[in-house]
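Q: My labmate handed me this sequence with no annotations at all. I'd like to see what the chain might look like in three dimensions before we decide whether it's worth expressing. Could you predict it?
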Amino acid sequence: MKNRLSYNHTVAACSISYAVQAIVNNYAPLLFVTYNKVYNISLEKIALLITVNFLTQLAIDLLSALFADKIGYRRLILMAHIFSIVGFWSLSILPELIEPFAGLLISVMIYGIGGGLLEVLISPVVEAGPSEKKSSVMSFLHSFYSWGQLIVVLLSTLFFSIFGIENRAYLTIIWTIIPILNMIYFCFVPINTLEDKKHGMSVTELLKDKVFYQMLILMICSGACELGMSQWASAFAESGLNVTKTIGDILGPCMFALFMGCSRLFYSIKGNGFDLEKYTLFSAILCMVGYFVASLSENPLIALSGCAICGFSVGVMWPGTYVIAHKKIPKGGTALFALLALAGDAGCTAGPTFIGFISGAFNDNLRVGIFFGSIFSVIMIILLFKSLYFKHKSTI
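A: Here is what I predict for the chain of 396 residues:
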């Protein structure tokens, strides 16, 4: 069977893997307010759940740069699915068996390992494929993270509306069906790596490259911009805007995911003719506007439209930075993608955690936290503007 499957099946399996990662990263945030009420866990402690998730992914990113090629991509991808599955099973039962916050932390760490492995491994597998339209394929691949986020929000909201939030443990188990089936799929698809084509740079060589550090900063800010809004959108709508959970989830994280997916799908179809750096600069400016609209508007619908604006704006940031980095550092190999994933997860940790702690410092005011969360888009704007300015200047 293995020989009958083309690399299109590999891209399909990789795309589903990003949907798995979306489930891992976005399911628990739908329950933040529930954890706050049922287990009496403060928003500052809940912010630590986000921090632990992405710190775990960050540690895995760093280790993967050292051992991914030795162990083999297929084995590690299968392990990633297993950790995701076990982590969700744990999330459904541990908080009821032991101290709730400890149970949540343990579960988050387990599925965080799975999410970290997927982030490091999936993009280079697709980058090593036969397609010549790398930016379009990469954007299409990452769009499945958005569709996964959209599906997990919509179906979870529907489940909670019908069966009640108290039955959340059953839904947590149901979500593991997707990684179980995709794990089986991955047993049979062909897998190439970047090193199949050319020798990759070592971590030490990358650390001597000045352009590499620019890419790291872009990746940190990309992760912070995206997860800063998506992780807090549900809680922001429910507690900050005083709308019902169902309406808040549909108009908050759901619209964020929908517009992010549309953005990535649009770029996968039309993006080959665009200057990716200029498009990313435009996206960073739009992201800043989205954060301001969400945090400053007194009208709940207008404020939630800021979530949608952010969703569209961050769509190209993460996959776009991968492509920009690979073009600027073509021999980066696995180490480049692993360290970029590490930087992205550092941003995924920094953005939501920063918003959570700022909100906590202002008496759990998420409006203030989200307003200050715009700093990451501002940093991107400055960095990209300088990059484009000096590139233009050098051609004169």
